[in-house]
Design brief:
299 residues, alpha+beta, 4-stranded antiparallel β-sheet, 32% helix
Length: 299
């Protein structure tokens, strides 16, 4: 009954569910046109894309390079990044396994982070504050479910097509100033190799907040996907200029790339590289910012 009520209230969800199960019947371009409507309620223009989200869909189809699979693989990207900006910015790896059932718990310290190599946002990340209190069976179940996600099949994110799903453990990073909401995530949105915007994501494991700034650290008047601003305006991080320069190095040669960093004890750590934020379905409010961001992508 609950599921029936949901589909009545969200009729486009029926279309999404259909595509998830029978999407192999459609070409990638038709699939994206349908999914774009079901996700956003808008028509997708692929011949002459204008907005940021439309251009991300275009890039899914027409900007496909073998190295992109390495760049989105949460394990393989570490060596890729180290070669460009240096090993000191890479979060140390504690272990890697082909399945969550293979995790060697005795080899892990009291605190650590587990994640899948194929990403998937918060669903594929486990933050362990105390191993003694960790429900290992639940973790194995959650990671196993996350590893079955297929970003190419569901959203046509081509770089993930050849990424091997695995589980990695990383060193736990903490920042007393961020409190229990976790360390802040600084996401640099780069266009043609140049960082133009920085999204600051805070309180990620409770009620996430997001604020966007330009490179002069002026707060921008928009939100995305109904994620509210932080209660207290984020202050400019001490390492902002370092992160900006590193982002430019990593984004060089790409029409659009998001480069994520963390700042911990005045040190910068690389987070991940993302080609398709929110898979190109993240709405802006006000809507005009979708077109403003889109104007920066040359295709």
């Amino acid at each position: 009954m609950q599921a029936f009520t949901y589909y009545i209230q969200e009729p486009r969800a029926i279309g999404k569910s259909f595509l998830y199960h029978f999407g192999n019947l459609f070409s990638d371009s038709l699939y994206l046109k349908l999914m774009y409507y079901f996700q956003t309620g808008k028509r997708l223009h692929l011949k002459h894309p204008i907005t940021f989200n439309e251009k991300l869909q275009w890039l899914k189809l027409y900007d496909r390079k073998p190295e992109y699979s390495t760049m989105v693989d949460k394990y393989a990207v570490k060596d890729y990044v180290a070669d460009i900006i240096g090993q000191e910015y890479v979060i140390p790896t504690l272990g890697i396994w082909n399945s969550p059932e293979e995790i060697v718990w005795d080899d892990l310290p009291r605190q650590f982070v587990l994640k899948t190599t194929i990403g998937g946002g918060g669903k594929g990340v486990i933050i362990c504050h105390n191993k003694a209190k960790l429900d290992r069976n639940d973790v194995v179940k959650r990671l196993g479910k996350a590893m079955k996600q297929d970003a190419y099949k569901r959203f046509k994110e081509w770089p993930y097509k050849d990424v091997q799903p695995r589980v990695i453990a990383e060193v736990f990073l903490s920042d007393p100033e961020s409190g229990e909401g976790g360390i802040k995530d600084y996401k640099f949105f780069c266009f043609n190799g140049k960082p133009l915007y920085c999204g600051v994501y805070s309180n990620r494991w409770d009620e996430m907040r997001a604020d966007f700034f330009d490179m002069e650290w002026s707060h921008l008047p928009f939100t995305r996907k109904k994620v509210p601003f932080a209660e207290n305006l984020p202050i400019k991080p001490q390492t902002f200029e370092t992160m900006r320069l590193l982002a430019a190095k990593l984004a060089k040669g790409h029409p659009h790339l998001r480069v994520d960093f963390y700042e911990v004890n005045s040190r910068v750590y690389f987070g991940e590289l993302t080609f398709f934020t929110a898979s190109g379905f993240g709405l802006f409010s006000p809507d005009e910012w979708d077109e403003i961001w889109g104007s920066h992508i040359s295709i």
